[in-house]
Each structure stands twice: as C-alpha cells, then as structure tokens.
C-alpha cells in the first residue's frame, strides 16, 4: 500500500461541497425523535392524502404504469394541470409545450435555473428566504442576493417589500428575481401593488422572474394569491414553479410543476431529464386523478382546515410568551423567542425542545448570518391530534 498516502492526498471534495452536512432542521428532527417529542420543525405535512390521489396512484401501479414516461410528464397530467392553472391561477398554458411535470418543485427549480442562468449570475431573493432557493443557486455557482423584507410592525401586520432595497441590489449581473408567494417561512403573500412594482423592475432591467407558488392553496382570510405571470407583459419572463407535495400531502412522492414559455421549456426539460429522466410514473396518475376529481371545494376546505390549525398554534405561542407574526399564507409561523434562554436561535430551539418536547427551527436558518436569532419557526401542517399535543406542551411554559 506504498502509494496510498500520495493518492489520498489527491482526493478531495469539490469546491462547492459543504464541509458540514447536518442541517439544523434534520438535527432537530433526530433529537425530537430520540426524546419522542412533537416535530413542528420540518414542513412534512402529515395530513391525509386525498382519496382520489391515493387511489389513482395505486390503480396506475396495478395497470402497469411503472415505466418511464415522456420526459415532461404524462399527457393526462399535463392536460389536467393546464385546466387547473386556467381556472385557479388565471394562466393559459399549452399542455404540450409549456408544462414540465418535475421531480418536485425542487427538481423543477433546479432544471429551470440550469436552463436560464449562467455561473456568476445574480438572483434576488427576499429575506427571510427558503434555504433551498439559495443553496440550489449556489450549487450551480449562481449568486443569491438577499434583499430584506421589512419586519411586521405588530403581530397582525405583514412583512413588506422595500422597493428601494430591491433597486439598490441590482447590478449588471442581476438576471432574475425569485418571488416565493405565499412564502416559507414568513407566510408572506405579495400584494398586487408589490408584484406590479417587481414586474416593472423586471421589465426595465430585462430580468427573468421565478415564482415559487407551492403554497398557493394555503391562503387565509380575504387575502388574494396573485400569480405574477398573470400581470401584463409578465408571461414570457416568468417561470411558475409549484407542485403537489403540499396540496395533496405527498411530500415524499416528488411531484412538481414548472410552467414556462415554450421558448424556455425545452431546455428545462433537457436538464430535468439528465437528472431524473421523468417524475414517478404511477404517482403522476395519482396527481392527475386528484386534479380531475377534486373540485374547488377541496381547495377551499384545505385552506379552511389550515386556517383552523394556524389559529390553534397562534394562540398557544401567544400563551407561551412567544409573540407570533401571524402568517397570511403557507403553514409556518415565525415567533419571537427572545424571551427564551439561549444566546442564539439554535440554542433557543434546543432549549425549547428539551423543556417541552416541541421541535422548531432556528430563525437564523432563513436569514443572512447574524440575523433571525430571536425567531423560531413552527410548522402547523400537522394532524390535529399532534398539533393539540404540541400546543399543550408549549402552554406548559406559561406555568414556569
Ligand atoms: C417554498 C418551498 N418551495 C418548494 C418546496 C419543496 O417542494 P417539493 O416537495 O415539491 O420539492 C418547499 C418545501 O418545504 C418550500 O417550502
């Protein structure tokens, strides 16, 4: 083995590979499992899968739909998606040339970024941001540029867009804006005025707009979800990313959607094919059955159910002395944990888990270094039994 040392010295991780792999969310999940606590950390949404979706997938397996599909998805599903986005989002798409059924919104965003961006390109992201957006871009040597949203002035106010900050962040390398509406983790829903202002920036500076609308059905009260692609002049430059993970409670199925102009979509299909070949075949049939059989009332009920869950968790956090910022959409709550022991958010989250058995995510996961250290994120897409248990545990802090 004389040469082993010399060879080993030549072997190393890539420049992009992270040196420490354990994410804080996974670490909390493992610790939570170890102590038998309630996990409000991960956005896994373990609520019931709608019957037609489950049944559709099972039947498809028995019917032999277990082989590769067309690279952009089965015709049945693309047609059902086109119909759905027409009535729900107000977007007209050609199911044959403008839809990619992706391996999750995650796989869809990866393929879209590969198709439209070059290494060194800058993409504006709003802070607090969803970690995968930033990390996916970095993994392709693209540069996320963080623009902070203004913090709500009180619990029921919203995070707001600072347009001057967006303009100040633009450079000759800026190629795209990334809008997540409703957002993870803040539950922010961009208003029409905000989207119009961003559309104008995109037009003036020749930018693509990626919109991640995976929480489009989780909208509470009389707030309106607006798909930026529906604004005049935006269709061609906007890439709409969404999926079934959250709406049908199938995060493990890996089924997402990308809508893009037919000029761009073939390149996205190409990159998606290289990594995934296609989205899981029988599960595509399950999603198609869901879209075909579940009417508008399903989506209304989904929002109503989650609005109820939001109310439970808001009240429990309030009682526990952690002021929640009430989200307009999605299914997470950021709460002010400054009163909890611990120097930073990760230590506060660990303290809370040890004390109550409720796992949360350190707010710092969603901000640039040094920010979000007074915040914790809690997920309320949980079965009522588990959510009630978590609420009782959180309220036990009150008696401290
Ligand atoms: C904003 C956002 N986009 C995308 C995803 C992942 O979607 P998918 O499961 O379709 O990859 C999540 C999951 O937490 C999310 O919060």
TrEMBL record:
It comes from the Bacteria. CDD domains: AAT_like. Keywords: Aminotransferase, Pyridoxal phosphate, Transferase. Its cofactor is pyridoxal 5'-phosphate. Pfam families: Aminotran_1_2. Residues 38-394 form the Aminotransferase class I/classII large domain. InterPro entries: Aminotransferase_I/II_large (IPR004839), Kynurenine-oxoglutarate_AT (IPR051326), NHTrfase_class1_PyrdxlP-BS (IPR004838), PyrdxlP-dep_Trfase (IPR015424), PyrdxlP-dep_Trfase_major (IPR015421), PyrdxlP-dep_Trfase_small (IPR015422). One of its GO terms (molecular function) is transaminase activity. Its EC number is 2.6.1.-. Belongs to the class-I pyridoxal-phosphate-dependent aminotransferase family. PANTHER family: FI04487P. This is Aminotransferase. It comes from Acidicapsa dinghuensis. The lineage of its organism: Bacteria, Pseudomonadati, Acidobacteriota, Terriglobia, Terriglobales.
């Amino acid at each position: 083995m004389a040469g082993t040392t010399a060879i080993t010295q030549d072997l190393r991780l890539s420049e992009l590979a992270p040196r420490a792999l354990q994410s804080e969310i996974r670490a909390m999940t493992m610790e939570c499992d170890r102590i038998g606590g309630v996990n409000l950390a991960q956005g896994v949404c373990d609520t019931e899968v709608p019957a037609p979706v489950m049944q559709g997938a099972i039947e498809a397996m028995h019917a032999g739909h277990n082989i590769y599909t067309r690279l952009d998805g089965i015709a049945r599903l693309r047609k059902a998606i086109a119909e759905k986005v027409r009535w729900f989002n107000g977007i007209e798409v050609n199911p044959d040339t403008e839809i990619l059924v992706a391996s999750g919104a995650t796989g869809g965003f990866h393929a879209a970024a590969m198709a439209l961006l070059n290494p060194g390109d800058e993409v504006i992201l709003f802070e607090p941001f969803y970690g995968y957006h930033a990390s996916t871009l970095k993994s392709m040597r693209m540069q996320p540029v963080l623009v902070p949203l203004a913090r709500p002035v009180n619990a029921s106010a919203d995070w707001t867009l600072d347009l001057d900050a967006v303009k100040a962040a633009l450079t000759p390398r800026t190629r795209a804006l990334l809008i997540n509406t409703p957002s993870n983790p803040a539950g922010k829903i961009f208003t029409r005025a905000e989207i119009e202002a961003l559309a104008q920036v995109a037009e003036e500076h020749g930018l693509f707009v990626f919109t991640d609308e995976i929480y489009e059905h989780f909208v509470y009260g009389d707030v309106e979800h607006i798909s930026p692609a529906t604004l005049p002049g935006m269709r061609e430059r906007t890439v709409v990313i969404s999926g079934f993970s959250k709406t049908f409670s199938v995060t493990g199925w890996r089924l997402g959607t990308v809508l893009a102009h037919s000029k761009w979509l073939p390149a996205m299909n190409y990159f998606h094919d290289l990594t995934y070949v296609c989205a899981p075949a029988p599960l595509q049939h399950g999603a198609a059955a869901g879209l075909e059989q579940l009417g508008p009332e399903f989506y209304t009920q989904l929002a109503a159910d989650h609005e109820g869950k939001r109310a439970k968790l808001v009240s429990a956090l309030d009682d526990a002395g952690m002021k929640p910022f009430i989200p307009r959409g999605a299914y997470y709550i950021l709460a002010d944990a400054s009163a909890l022991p611990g120097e930073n958010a990760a230590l506060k989250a660990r303290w809370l888990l040890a004390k109550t058995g409720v796992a949360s995510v350190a707010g710092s996961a969603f901000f640039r270094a040094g920010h979000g250290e007074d915040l914790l994120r809690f997920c309320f897409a949980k079965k009522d039994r588990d959510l009630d248990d978590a609420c009782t545990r959180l309220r036990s802090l009150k008696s401290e």
